[in-house]
């Protein structure tokens, strides 16, 4: 039997402004994402859909999950592959394309732009190549149906 891992979270709507969902404009999209022992994530819908721009939205969280999983697996591959990473930062970009009917949409691509600093110049090419190996092991990348592009920049300390 295959090993499994489970992830339990709660989403609690906090946006009842007094009349519930009486109309499309009568409620806030505010909610919290919760997990045992963790700080809540204040969330909402995208501002384009009447959401609060000060809160995280599901689309941002999905793009963040792609970037986080890529980074964590990349650091692992570097560690076991002899590449010493001393700094890593990513400016991920996701695109949602709306259906022509206007009734919905989907994430159609994510571009990761990691800025990686390695300890030695001799590590640069391997550091760049390892980005291409991440998608075969990253749980999130293997779970989504849109392309994930990589535009890494590798620097030497």
UniProtKB/TrEMBL annotation:
Pfam families linked to this entry: OsmC
Entry superkingdom: Bacteria
Record-linked Gene3D superfamilies: 3.30.300.20
Signal peptide start-end: none
SUPFAM superfamilies in the cross-refs: OsmC-like
PANTHER family, per the entry: OSMC_OHR FAMILY PROTEIN, OSMOTICALLY INDUCIBLE FAMILY PROTEIN
Protein name (Swiss-Prot/TrEMBL): OsmC family peroxiredoxin
Organism: Streptomyces klenkii
